[in-house]
Amino acid sequence: MSKMFFAATTTALTMSVASASFAGNLSEPIIAPSPAAMAAPVYSTGTDWTGFYVGGSLGYAEGSEDDSTVFEDDGATYGIHAGYDYDFGNFVLGAELELSGFDVSDGGNDIDSVSRAKLRAGYDAGAFLPYLTVGVASLDIGGGLDANDTGSFYGVGMDYMLNDRIRLGGEVLQHEFGNFDNTGLDFEATTASVRVAFQF
């Protein structure tokens, strides 16, 4: 009988401990997943360069003919430009029209003006936009030569977004005009300018 009493007591104690453990597990709070485990939102820090802009420029030009016997001189430039850029995220693509007057004269020949149709491709570096540009240029020479012809140009530039409306920038271009107006002369010109534009 003592064996039966001992077995019954042992069984009762075991069930009591198991019940207490089970009850304790039910009372433990449910812990939600940590917010740190969730992906943090990503915010863009780039500037949106999309939009139309118009502006002006001042600069310096150096022009010459291939053997420098007909023309070689330098002087000031001034101009106006208008264009449109589209910001794809990190990449910016745009087009621009520009007209520049020249104060460059060598004896009887003067570089009067250069007009340009540009394509621009740049990198959105926040408030800065470094870019490459290429396009078609029309050179007008007055004085004794009095001729006009079309050539090409290429160059580099940098724009800075001062605020959401004002752009500041700089640009260096190399122009090439082969067999200018069927004269057999090859002209080239290098320009460097500072620019300001209003974006809207």
Automatic annotation (TrEMBL):
Keywords of the record: Membrane, Signal
Every Outer membrane protein beta-barrel domain range: 36-200
Top-level lineage group: Bacteria
Signal peptide: 1-23
GO CC field: membrane
Subcellular location: Membrane
Statement: the UniProt record of this protein carries the keyword DNA damage: no
InterPro entries named among the record's database cross-references: Beta-barrel_OMP, OMP-like, OMP/PagP_B-barrel
PANTHER family for this protein: BLL7405 PROTEIN (PTHR34001)
Family: Belongs to the Omp25/RopB family.
Protein name as catalogued: Outer membrane protein beta-barrel domain-containing protein
Origin species: Octadecabacter antarcticus 307
Top-level taxonomy: Bacteria, Pseudomonadati, Pseudomonadota, Alphaproteobacteria, Rhodobacterales
